[in-house]
Specification:
Blueprint lengths: L1 H4 L1 H31 L3 H9 L4 H10 L17 H16 L1
Length: 97
């Protein structure tokens, strides 16, 4: 009954309640951030066993032949991807025969 008679008192209630709600939402945000920062121990062990360095990746790129490549067009938004794949396979089959 006090809130109905004194509308200004409800503003203070919203202010206090809002600050508690905001604190809870901010805590959820930080908790989620902590979870995303953690790495699975099995994955960490796998990464230790197979170290990938910038030099090793550069050597892979040097070994690959970048002069002979084929531009493969993906389907447009209005095209059916299965139809485009079927046409591409048919063209490749005719090309190899």
């Amino acid at each position: 009954m006090f809130l109905i008679c004194c509308p200004k008192a409800s503003h203070g209630l919203y202010l206090i309640g809002g600050s508690f709600g905001l604190r809870e939402f901010a805590q959820i945000r930080y908790d989620v951030h902590k979870l995303h920062g953690k790495v699975d121990p099995a994955l960490k062990e796998k990464l230790k066993q197979n170290p990938v360095t910038l030099e090793s990746e550069y050597e892979k790129l040097e070994k690959s032949n970048l002069d002979n490549w084929e531009n493969i067009r993906g389907p447009s938004l209005w095209e059916d991807s299965r139809t485009v794949q079927k046409q591409r396979r048919e063209a490749l089959r005719l090309k190899t025969e």
